[in-house]
Amino acid sequence: MGINQRLYMIMQTPFLVSRSNISLDPIAGLLKQCLKFKTLRGGKQVHAWLVTRGTDLRILSLNSKLVGMYASCGDVKSATLVFKRIRNPNVFALNWMVLASAFEGYYKEAIGYFCSMKDSVFIYNKYTFSIVLKAFVGLLDLNKGKEVHSMVKQLGFESDVCVANALVDMYSKCGCIGYARTVFDRMAKRDIVSWTSMISGYCNVGKIEEALVLFERMKLEGLEPNDFTWNALISGYARRGDSDGAFSLLSKMTREGLVPDLVTWNAMIAGFVQGERAGDAFKLFQDMLVLGVKPNLVTVAGLLPACGMVSSIQRGRAIHGLVYRLEFDISNAFIASALIDMYSECGSFKEARTVFEKIHNKNVASWNAMIGCYGKHGMVNTSIQLFERMHGEGIQANDVTLLCVLSACSHSGYVEKGLEIFWSMKERYMVDRKKEHYACVVDMLSRSGRLVDAYELVKEMPIEVTKSIAGAFFNGCMIHGRRDLAEKMIDDVTRGDLKKPGSFAMLSAIYATSGERKEVRNTMKKIVKERKAQKEPACSQVEEKDEFVGVEIEKENNEVSIKAG
Q: Where are the transmembrane segments (predicted)?
């Protein structure tokens, strides 16, 4: 019997007119079923039935179950409306809001829900940490991820396999493979996900040899690799352009009794695309079709960037046509964003806009793709208008959105508009300014000849000076004949007036950009000698058995050393 039929039978039962806890048990059970099977229509009917009878939704935590049902079905807007009406939401409702927000790409909102627990009586559970760590992966916010790791340690969840796996995944995807390996090695118990996450982490940073060592060690410890483990390795070989190694692993996988499925093909195609081997990706896709393997949305989204790499709009249109023939939902934000990016890279912003307007439920990635498309083609006014429309429709912008708009302003000389948006990021758009945004604005000011403003911004900004920021400033100085300002910035570094992380890196970038590499070495040696400046390794501290343990990572080789202090 389907959910809709059960819903009809339950709602026709006379005793359900009562509002007692017992009479609402079948309804609570039905909501759980709607959540499990993602039955949005049935869930809405249950919600309507409860509202029309004036049911107290606090009974049996029906309000939290409604949040879970809507979130599970992907209706984040309805989940949010129900959640906001709960005076004291429980951890179940909060976990669902974190999960749904992160899944839809609203990482800042997900973290906001997580942080709201700190000021309440809630006790985090293991699912909370597993979920929120995915949001930090989405933002690539390693520092916040480390803070959560510290909380995990304090609350005793580090021994939980699911939480530890999430930590390994977070550190790996944030590019901190040394920390990921430290967490992995400390795990008392590891499952197939633990090994696969660590192997995938090594493959993602090109350390295939280390991944292979773990792969063999995993089998020695009695765990058989699954499809995902094999796919991680195959994708790693494809990403670095080793087609022979990828196909060799594919054959080995088959010999060991695992039949390569669509996930395997997708992994190889995505690997070749990420390794900028568009030709191999297209050939593999053709082989897949010849063998009768039907592609899915992941296949298409993975292959479309290859069309942009070779500027082949014909191939892109052919894949777009295949999407229609296979009756994929063209309004799906995931596939639509990939199509927009493809048309943008191939120079057809009109076709990109056509795809964009057909998306029923546009997410932030869709808006970013279209805003970025106009920016790349110098259509700054249209890009800004779309950005304002996005804001007007209540879609929360993220870091990428603001970067797209600022980049458009920079490359088209819209300095005043760019500065207006930059300085209102936090207040109006609720987005923190990061190094990428500062780099974009320094570049914008330097391009336009406003070197004094760029100089003042670099001196006052509260973040480290990156090579891209330094390079943008120095290039502007050279283009506009302001060698004096470049030398003034160098003097600030050498005198120690510019006391912030990255100052020496900036000096290196300035000299390196002008080709004076010998002067880089001599000047850096002189500064280090005179000021006795030493580069300290990054250090994270956690508490363990009343001892302070520091985990250090050398940035050059990602080697991990642990010392007690």
A: none
